[in-house]
Design goal:
Elements (H helix, E strand, L loop, with lengths): L4 E2 L2 E2 L7 H20 L3 E5 L3 E5 L10 H6 L4 E8 L6 E7 L9 E7 L3 H11 L11
Antiparallel strand pairs: 1-2, 3-4, 4-5, 5-6, 6-7
Helix pairs in contact: 1-3
Amino acid sequence: MTEPVVNERPLSEQPLSEAEAAVWAPAARALVVALAARGLVASVHGHGAVLARNPAGEPAPDDLVGAALSPGLNQEVWCRPDWPGRELWWFWAWSGPNRNDPPELEPLCPASETVLAADAIARVLAVPFADVRVS
């Protein structure tokens, strides 16, 4: 498997160091709390990622076709050291160009910027007219 790429440079999939993990874990927990405050559901994953989803983007419980066809409205962000300074950053994880390619990572913000990260993720997962009834 090839390494994820950030702006044309490989980003190591090496596990986070102990020091990085000590910073990442509280940052991930803080991000999950901030996302929940914005109506999103989020979970922490051991590979240094947080997966956020918007329940408003889910099909109605009685819509079996929608449930079968809908991938859901979700976004994964990875926490990795920034290349030069090794400061931990959140990166958007976008699908690679081909089915089995690793994700392409785009810098979002420093891991310490919880509010900025949560606001950006909430904008990406927004469903502005979720409460409007369709007849």
